[in-house]
Amino acid sequence: MKLTIDRADLMRSLSHVQSVVERRNTIPILSNVRLSAKEGALSLATTDMDIEINETVAADVSVIGATTAPANTLHDIIRKIPDNTKVEISVDAGGAMMTVKAGRSTFKLSCLPVSDFPEIGADNLPHSFQMPAADLRTIVDRTRFAMSTEETRYYLNGIYFHATDHDGVAVLRAVATDGHRLARYEMPLPEGAQKMPGVIIPRKTIAEIRKLVDEAADTIHISLSENKVRFSFDHIVLTSKLIDGTFPDYQKVIPAGNDKIVEIDPKMFNGAIDRVSTISAEKTRAIKLTINGKTMTLTAQSPESGSATEDIEISNENAALEIGFNSKYLMDITQQMEGAGCRIILADSGSPTIIQDTSDNSALYVLMPLRV
């Protein structure tokens, strides 16, 4: 194998694929990136056995071939090479050593056989549809903060995507919850997604695809089965296994009888929470909201630090109560709101609370209260 490639092109592709590679690997081949040179193009692939990223980039290939090399080491080498440099990559006849030349620098890296590199089979993905990259970014951003990180509740360690019906309209809905809060976001169902199964896309896959779609062109092609999903766009293909578990019936968590409504400017509310929670106890991050008339008082106390209060104006429909929340969870939700109004729908101090953006009914958040 022998090729020449622009440093910037190689660096961009390596940055995309190497993030899947775990720094500590007990299986040596999983630390490597597979490099496959064909006429006019170089394909790079990495996997951790659950996710595989494959990207193709233009290259001047003089000898076709394939090899695998340490992904993080190669990434570090290319990162330190000056921009506007041509990089020459070649592999010796035995395939055991790869030479990387750039300017006056030469690096030699040990290779492992391409035959050792595992592939995630994703041939039979019967459900296919496409959606704008901006829509995928939005549906992920509005829900991913509520994913669980508890490994024992593995079925919550991702976002649940499914096709459903809302007031007679077919929608694609994404739901994430960690048991303390729930985030739900929906958009019109893309053509071709009508019969898709409900799938839980793992947390790591969500993080990887979110990074990649920042640079994506207009359209993301999505194919899936009951146990795998594939995202294709530009010259990148990300294939991932899905979480093998049953997502809980989240509808039971969304309260139906809340009758006390408060509306508030979400940016003002978020800023007040941020200031007052500076004093809150590190463990609980508890903050108390006291609603009385047209005023909400935010209070935080800590045995070590003291106390803090702040009053903010609200629009109030028959709500008069005290309720406590985890301030970080409350900020995570209010940060999602881009409109001028945040609607808080309450029942009492011990029941789940619904929070919505007044200008966007696509998103709904549920937050469990704290005792304060």
Protein model, in words:
It is a single chain. This protein is an alpha+beta fold and 372 residues long. Helices cover 16% and strands 44% of the residues. It has helices at 7-18, 71-80, 133-141, 203-213, 266-276, 327-334; strands spanning 2-6, 32-38, 41-47, 51-58, 60-63, 65-70, 86-91, 97-102, 105-110, 127-132, 158-166, 169-177, 181-188, 199-202, 219-224, 228-233, 236-241, 260-264, 286-292, 295-302, 306-313, 315-317, 321-326, 342-346, 353-357, 360-367. The longest helix has 12 residues, at 7-18. It is elongated. It starts with a strand and ends in a 5-residue tail after the last strand. The mean pLDDT is 95.
List the helices and strands and how they pair.
Elements: E1 2-6, H1 7-18, E2 32-38, E3 41-47, E4 51-58, E5 60-63, E6 65-70, H2 71-80, E7 86-91, E8 97-102, E9 105-110, E10 127-132, H3 133-141, E11 158-166, E12 169-177, E13 181-188, E14 199-202, H4 203-213, E15 219-224, E16 228-233, E17 236-241, E18 260-264, H5 266-276, E19 286-292, E20 295-302, E21 306-313, E22 315-317, E23 321-326, H6 327-334, E24 342-346, E25 353-357, E26 360-367
Antiparallel strand pairs: 1-5, 1-7, 2-3, 2-6, 3-4, 4-17, 7-8, 8-9, 10-15, 11-12, 11-14, 12-13, 13-26, 15-16, 16-17, 18-22, 18-24, 19-20, 19-23, 20-21, 24-25, 25-26
